[in-house]
Design goal:
single chain; Trypsin Inhibitor V, Chain A; 45% helix; three-stranded mixed sheet; alpha+beta; 2 domains
């Protein structure tokens, strides 16, 4: 690059061989402006195509502290699916309320992703326990 530009500058300063100077100018413009512009435009098209091929994404809503019906409505509106991962007894948690979700609230996921929930349940009776 430096060589071509130096050669071009030298011929332009001396004023000799204007045809060679014009040829070198055209080569420099093509090599350093036109070809990189074409390459960058192709890269931009490739990036745009790749972005359009990705599935649409949505943000996971905060569900901790809600009941399962409200969570189901929120997830349906966010185009996400809801299986209950577990019903677990946890003393500080009110029965029927969600106390854990995965993925966490605020994460971006593909539409249709399953959001697992853990819901609090009533204290187990002694009869329900296995020996």
């Amino acid at each position: 690059m430096r060589f071509v530009l130096g050669l071009l500058l030298g011929y332009c300063i001396r004023g000799k061989k204007p045809l060679l100077a014009a040829t070198l100018t055209v080569i420099a413009v093509v090599c350093f402006i036109v070809l990189p512009a074409i390459a960058l435009s192709q890269l931009a098209l490739s990036v745009r195509r790749e972005r359009l091929s990705r599935p649409p994404q949505t943000r996971v809503p905060p569900l901790v502290g809600l009941d399962d019906e409200t969570a189901k409505t929120l997830l349906h509106n966010s185009k996400l699916n809801m299986p209950v991962l577990a019903n677990r007894y946890d003393p500080p948690v009110e029965p029927g309320k969600i106390f854990f979700q995965t993925p966490q609230a605020g994460e971006f996921v593909d539409c249709g992703t399953v959001v697992g929930l853990t819901i609090g349940k009533k204290k187990p009776n002694d009869k329900e326990r296995l020996p």
